[in-house]
Task: structure prediction
Amino acid sequence: MFELSKLFGSEMRVKIIRVFLRNQDITLNNLEVSKKCKVKEDLSRKELVQLEKSGLLIRDKNSREIAYKLNREFRFRETLYTLMFDFKSASRDAIKERFVDIGRMKLLMLSGVFVGDENTRCDILYVGEAVKVQQKDKLLAEFESEVGFPLRIEIIDLEEYNYRFKMFDRYLRDALYRDTNEFLVDKVGINK
Result:
């Protein structure tokens, strides 16, 4: 995921592009963009101007304030969409590294957008011991601002996982037993 920020000049630009590509019918002003992407307003304003100059964004003439929307006629829109949302090629080590501070990792499973299977209930399943709630909330917010839409990330404590597994929790079992899942860490013995 970080390769794109190097390619496009900044992580902030990639975040803004993703927000507009994922939400192609919305019009956003600078304040809304800065909140969605969790960046400073003055920096997002500069990026919006550059993206307008590139032709990817256009100003909404119906808005009372300066607001932008995706230019549906942009020549590389579909190609850019494919490039921005190809999470199957995301670095597995980088994803794993992001979860290190949450607790003692017992299971880290990728599914959904990370394996090209949009029909799942979960994109990432993390099971750990001593899960730190503050770190968990921070990580979820970072992921959402980075990819431009909310990922379906399930972070649960090992004790809760064991209880739900023994109770044949349908959500958990549906998430775990898919052929497309990719296990980065499995200390609970699911992928035997």
In short: The chain is about 45% helix and 15% strand. Strands lie at 27-29, 57-59, 67-70, 104-110, 124-129, 153-157, 182-186.
